[in-house]
Write a structure and sequence with these properties.
Elements (H helix, E strand, L loop, with lengths): L2 H4 L13 H11 L3 E5 L5 E6 H8 L23 H10 L2 H4 L7 E2 L4 H11 L3 E6 L2 E7 H10 L2
Parallel strand pairs: 3-4
Antiparallel strand pairs: 1-2, 4-5
Length: 150
């Protein structure tokens, strides 16, 4: 069983200039895990995820902490609505996206897709031909493949 037989070919994508708010709304409304980021030639530039967006509102110093159990009141650390308003309008996908993307080819097997997903702890893989995005394959797509084979 090949990736091309079960991948989603109609993929919702965004440009690198899309705003935090635009991407957030697409991810939220469609329950997507990731959105591929492409250029005008449909070449894959990266992916943006819910985790990427949420990381943008987390203060930078949290990356330096291996343990934050000593923080008793996270409320004192929260950002205000004005800051969120600025973040959602000023940050664009190119600031947030993951640029080094794990991909798979259309002729690869579903077993390889599962192995790549598990090794890299991802749920979705962009499917590329060269550097052009031609689809995505998710764990759900693969599960469907196994459930529909007779």
């Amino acid at each position: 069983m090949k990736v091309k037989e079960y991948m989603t070919k109609e993929v919702t994508t965004v440009s690198s200039s899309a705003t935090f708010r635009e991407v957030g709304e697409i991810l939220y409304k469609n329950a997507f895990d990731i959105l591929p980021v492409i250029d005008k030639k449909k070449e894959l530039l990266g992916v943006v995820s819910k985790a990427d967006l949420l990381h943008a509102v987390l203060p930078d110093y949290f990356d330096l902490l291996s343990d934050f159990s000593f923080v008793r009141d996270f409320g004192a650390l929260e950002i205000d609505k004005d800051s969120i308003f600025m973040i959602e309008r000023l940050l664009v996908v190119s600031d947030l996206m993951t640029k080094h993307v794990i991909t798979i080819g259309e002729d690869d097997s579903l077993l390889k897709a599962i192995a790549v997903m598990n090794k890299n702890k991802v749920r979705v893989l962009p499917v590329v031909k060269g550097n052009k995005l031609i689809g995505i394959i998710s764990r759900r797509d693969i599960l469907r493949a196994f459930l529909t084979t007779d």
